[in-house]
Amino acid sequence: LLVLTSGYNRNFDTDGRRIAAASNDYVFVFDVSGEVPRQTQALALPNAFLGLAIAPDGRHFFVAGGRDDDIHVFVKQDTGWREAGAAIPLGHDNGELPDGARNAAGPVAAGLAVTADGATVVVANFENDALSVVDWQRSRVIGELDLRPGKIDPRERGRRGGTYPYAV
User: Are 117 and 153 contacting, i.e. CB atoms less than 8 angstroms apart?
Assistant: First the structure.
């Protein structure tokens, strides 16, 4: 069982400096094979927001990095789960929308899902009004789908919709 904490866990010392070690989000791993669930790991993340998906092979899972605009890939090993290298950046330059426009809030990687073949992760870009398509094995974004009306269909320009995608 995987449990994702997600929020703005910001702890500061008396001088107002952020205490990095006390300001993480986590994936808590539980063994639920017995009568009583038993926590086996606490995997720290600098930031997270909503997204957690397990690959069909059961040996990988993915976490959206929230305001860090990235995704984390974890792999199962004999001794437990570990992060499989550096987080994969989604490449939104400080809130850049797919057409080069900007939003003031900055990027936020939110909900995500993995395809049935386990090869691709799709990430909802909460503040960027788009979806990123990621080849996680090659650590790169392979596509971006702008969800704003008028971008998908020019006849819909000016219509509301497509904003703040939360989950896929």
Answer: no
Burial of 118 (0-12, 13-18, 19+ CB in 10 A): middle
Closest to 115 measured CA to CA, from 51, 57, 166: 57
Side-by-side strand order, sheet with 109-114: 109-114, 120-125, 130-135, 140-146
- pTM of the full structure: 0.86
**Per-residue pLDDT of the chain in tens (168 residues, 90 and over written 9):** 999 998 666 777 888 887 777 778 999 999 999 999 999 999 999 889 999 999 999 999 999 999 899 999 999 999 999 999 999 999 987 655 556 666 667 789 999 999 999 999 999 998 888 899 999 999 999 999 988 777 767 787 766 667 889 999
The backbone torsions φ and ψ at residue 154, rounded to the nearest 5 degrees and listed phi first, read -55, -25
